[in-house]
Amino acid sequence: MESTPDATAAGPIGRPLRRLTVLSGGMGGARFLQGLLHGIAAGTLPGVATDAHVTVVANNADDWWIHGLKVCPDLDTVMYTLGDGIDLDRGWGRRAETWSAKEELAAYGVEPTWFGLGDRDIATHLVRTQMLDAGYPLSQVTQALCRRWLTPAYGDALTLLPMTDDRVETHIAVADAESASGKRVVHFQEYWVRLRAEVPAEQVVFVGLDQSTPAPGVVEAITGADLVVLPPSNPVVSVGTILGVPGIRDAVRSTDARVVGLSPIVGDSHVRGMAEQMLTAIGVEVSAAGVGLNYGARSAGGVLDGWLVDERDAGQVARLEAAGIATAAVPLMMTDHDATAAMAAAAIGLVRG
């Protein structure tokens, strides 16, 4: 039987936290990271050193190739957000973007016309694709891109890693009356961008995930951490895919660090994105408790020591604690950096006692 650290003993209780690892998706994870880094710099996170190092392990299972270019939406959203280049209104892509290339491609009738690459954003994809074609793995490509976006602001204090260097893709099965099987499978980006996640997802299909391996440094960032955080990212197609890379879930279960998560479900609904559709597709209850129980307690073979729910979901705390997950109800709306830092502080305080 696999052993896991006792929830009362795991983690460096007597010394400052200096190595934090966050398993992140795109928008939700990036916004949480902004608050976490703000709290570290301000010295408002309990027990966290102001020179702490943060490693972000980002989902890259929603990557795809378009117009011959490799696009990594979650990696880029984290990179642009923390590098102060994100479009704040959209929550993705570059600020002050223009769309001439998209319009020209549409004029030629080149599909897909529903997915646009901005003129500024396209430079990132060109550099990435050229480096991949030259034989560099995605982890090294990401490191090179981050020299522009993250190094000037954070130096060596922040590292962004893809979950794997292998090609992994997420596909969604939806109903199709014209198909012999009654359904068809579309790439995640088509489901999210073209269909706007407005049709029910009947199944989530991960291509290549079972055969993938963690990118260099990922397992070490988890097993060598003082704290591991699961932010309010999509639990199925963001954090779920990261944990689905063989070896990563085992690393989370075996690390000496405490593992704490924050619910992406507030008041029985996702705040933004499509967690509700994805949870329904895999048969998980759409609630803060449902997500926490799906992750499971480390003491029972899951991945969590602690779980934060929003204050309006306080009635679910007892159910989670009965399953062996330390739980607290606090405000979980990321309205600004201070509010998000307060969420991070509450998460840390919960598992550090």
Describe this structure in words.
There is one protein chain. A hairpin with a 2-residue loop joins β11 and β12. Helices cover 36% and strands 20% of the residues. It is built from 14 helices and 14 strands. α1 runs parallel beside α2 and α4 runs antiparallel to α5. With 353 residues, the protein is of the alpha/beta class. The N terminus is likely disordered. The strands form 4 sheets. Strands 5-2-1-9-10-13-14 form a 7-stranded parallel sheet, with helices on both faces.
In a nutshell, what does this entry contain?
Helices cover 36% and strands 20% of the residues.
Features:
disordered N terminus, three-stranded antiparallel beta sheet, alpha/beta, 353 residues
Question: Strand sequence of the main sheet, in spatial order?
Answer: 5-2-1-9-10-13-14
User: Which percent range fits the helix content?
Assistant: 25-40%
Q: H/E order of the elements?
A: EHEEEHHHHHEEEHEHEHHEEEHHEHEH
Number of helices: 14
* Rounded radius of gyration (Å): 20 Å
How many strands appear in the DSSP assignment? 14
Per-chain topology:
Blueprint: E1 17-24, H1 27-42, E2 48-58, E3 64-66, E4 69-71, H2 73-82, H3 100-107, H4 121-133, H5 138-149, H6 151-154, E5 158-162, E6 169-175, E7 183-187, H7 188-194, E8 203-207, H8 218-223, E9 227-230, H9 239-244, H10 248-254, E10 258-262, E11 265-266, E12 269-270, H11 275-281, H12 288-295, E13 306-310, H13 317-322, E14 326-330, H14 337-352
Parallel strand pairs: 1-2, 1-9, 2-5, 9-10, 10-13, 13-14
Antiparallel strand pairs: 3-4, 6-7, 6-8, 11-12
Helix pairs in contact: 1-2, 1-14, 4-5
